[in-house]
Amino acid sequence: MLQENLRNVAIIAHVDHGKTTLVDKLLRATDAFRANQQVEDRVLDSNDQERERGITILAKNISIEYKGVKINVIDTPGHADFGGEVERVLRMADSALLLVDAFEGPMPQTRFVLRHAIDAGLAIMIVVNKIDRPGARPEAVVNDSLDLMMDLGATDEQLEFAMEHVVYASAVNGFARLSPDDGNDDMYPLLDMIVDCLPAPDCDPDGPLAMQCVTIDHSSYVGRIGIGRVYSGTIHAGEQILVVKNDGSRAMAQAKQLFTFDYLGRTECDEIRAGDIGAVVGIDRTDIGDVYTDPENPVELEPIEIDPPTLSVVFEASTSPLVGRDGDIVGARQLKERLMREAENNVTMRIEELGDKTGVEVAGRGILHLSVLMEAMRREGFEFQVGRPRVLFKEDEHGHRLEPVELAVVECPNEFSGKVIEAFGESGGTMSSMQAGETHTHLEFKIPTRGIMGLKNRILNATHGEGVFYHTFSEYGPYAGELGVRNNGAMISMSTEKSVGYALGTLQERGTMFVGPGEECYEGMLVGERSKPGDMVVNIARTKSLGNQRSSTADIAVQLTPPKTFTLEEALEYIMDDELVEVTPKNIRMRKRILNAIERKKDNVRRGKVSK
Q: Cα–Cα distances in Å, from 55 out to 33, 400, 473?
């Protein structure tokens, strides 16, 4: 039976295409939202990290009431590192809005989420945003979007539906149109098309209860909160339900509280009916894939499998000589407690304390996945240090070593394709597809996850910043052997002092500096990169010897090149096994694991890396 008063719609895009602005304008177009002055000035729950990075890192739900129809809007993550979220939340939707920029067209992140939406069989409507942008080409972008859907294996029904349901919008100006030039100045055409054309949930409201948990929220008061869609029946507050885990185990539980999504927040309710999306409180240790069903007539639903983590890093309390200067939270116990709270809420990460209690190992889907957690913690006032990301290996039934393999895609101008292929070849990549167009070349590679680390900057340099590079986990494949490591050595500070411009002027002739004059440095800290192999201990505080003679040219100011700065992801990709990244609220520094130069030499001798 169709629930005509419901629509469950996912939005496919990334933030740069105006997803947040579009949903905000849709909210403000509804009468009920405008009438509620308490929420008139609220904005969507999109944190600073997402705006800075141009991606959505967590799936979110809101609802809109329009013409007596409740529209549940699901905001999907737009990056492959957060694919665990994407695959699950699309199960709650019956249709999707493919939001594309009228100038840029579909982006690589959009391609990733769109593939999952097509595989899920969703009805897809195309929304071309920013049609007021100079150079906008809305008709061409619609054709590009249809071509992309065809490349990703969309069915004839999905392609035909998308061709017939296209909306042209400018979210920042608050209008949506059925034609780029029809002159409409409000958002109602988009809302009307959602209500009139997108499919309603097909469910059985009179059948036995079947609800599946696809997202986990966490509260310090009530514990885990299971969020999902009711596929059949109705769940009532206070009733006893059967919880079926992914492994088949079963247990009875009580649904103590129920919530449905109400605009930007949640409203407590007595029941959640078939087709609607809601949250359930009271299920102890609920997890992704749990099915809440009728104890007398249990319903079986397809289990949800989360992509396995492929990279891990070890979080440790900071041992830097400058510890405590930037952050308020520096203790190992506080660090462990924060990460264990994250383990309750973030089911896509595996977080475990090391056996020797020296740190906490956090495994995730990629560098970005891990760095988002680090960024959140440093903004909370934590100081900590992390080691080099380590790839998680497996073994097959014959005892052979397997490692994660990524599918990497690069789109670049034709003249740079040779350099891109060379860069992948040096990192262990194998080209699987090459499509040359009039101006750009589309390249696809299979490459070990180990080879991906540090490759992004090389691709951007090789393509003069014009290449688009993204990757997603493909499979576990045979171990590819040793891959190339950083060729150039590091410049390492020999003392804990502030850097001096005179010393930096001499050192910059021998490599690239990571620090500028007047910055706090300490013994063992990486202050630059040599132009040759092998590490070099340097004095960054050396000053000019003063004499009693003067010269017309001796006191000419030192001309310093601006230092190279690293983002958190770039620093994690740059360091070697014997190095660490120190993360504080104000700084990201790289250092040697053993700070003292003499102790480092002794350790290398013990490990057999150098002779006595």
A: 26, 37, 18
Q: Which two tokens stand for residue 399?
A: 């005892």
pLDDT tens per residue across span 83-107: 556 777 888 888 998 888 888 788 7
User: Is residue 345 pLDDT above 60, yes or no?
Assistant: yes
Cα dihedral 194→199→204→206 (10° resolution): 40
Please give the C-alpha separations between residue 201 and each of 3, 65, 198, 273, 481, in angstroms, as whole numbers: 6, 16, 10, 11, 50
Instruction: Dump the DSSP string for 98-167.
Output: EEEETTTBS-HHHHHHHHHHHHTT-EEEEEEE-TTSTT--HHHHHHHHHHHHHHTT--HHHHHHHHH-EE
Give the integer Cα–Cα distance in Å for 362 and 474. Answer: 21
Q: Provide the whole-model pTM.
A: 0.71
Element (H, E) at 568: helix 568-574
Distance CA 421, CA 459 (A): 10
Could you tell me the two tokens for 130? 């920013």
What is the DSSP track for 318-342?
---TTTTSS-SB--HHHHHHHHHHH
Q: What backbone torsions phi and psi does residue 110 show, to the nearest 5 degrees? A: -65, -40
- Residue 478: phi and psi, rounded to 5, are -60, 145
Contact call for residues 233 and 205 (beta carbons, < 8 A): yes
Give the pLDDT confidence score for residue 57 in this predicted structure: 42
Residue in 410, 367, 413, 406 with CA at minimum distance from that of residue 386: 367
pLDDT tens sequence across 18-54: 667 777 777 777 755 454 544 434 333 334 444 444 4
Is residue 105 a contact partner of residue 141, using CB atoms and an 8 Å limit? yes
The pLDDT of residue 524 is: 93
CA dist., res. 255 & res. 243, Å (int): 10
Q: Identify residue 401 by its one-letter amino acid code.
A: R
Cα distance between residue 81 and residue 61, in whole Å? 20
d(CA 484, CA 273): 56
Q: What pLDDT is recorded for position 153? A: 85
DSSP β-ladder status, 6-12 and 95-101: parallel
| DSSP, res 268 | E
- Within 13 Å, how many C-alpha atoms sit on residue 14's CB side? 22
- Provide the token pair at 296: 């007398």
DSSP output for 183-239 = ---SSHHHHHHHHHHSPPPB-BTTS--EEEEEEEEEETTTEEEEEEEEEESEEETT-
- Give Cα separations from 550 to 383, 544, 559 (angstroms): 47, 13, 20
Tokens representing 82 are: 């957060």
- Mean pLDDT for 109-136 is 84
Long-range contacts of 461-467 (CB under 8 A, 24+ apart): 462/416, 462/419, 462/420, 462/422, 462/423, 463/410, 463/412, 463/413, 463/416, 463/419, 463/420, 464/416, 466/412, 466/413, 466/416, 467/410, 467/411, 467/412, 467/413, 467/416, 467/420
Give the C-alpha distances (Å, rounded to integers) separating 211 from 10, 170, 208, 217, 265: 19, 37, 10, 16, 21
| Dihedral angle computed from the Cα positions of residues 544, 546, 550 and 553, in that order, rounded to the nearest 10 degrees | 0
On the question of pLDDT at 490 being above 80, the answer is: yes
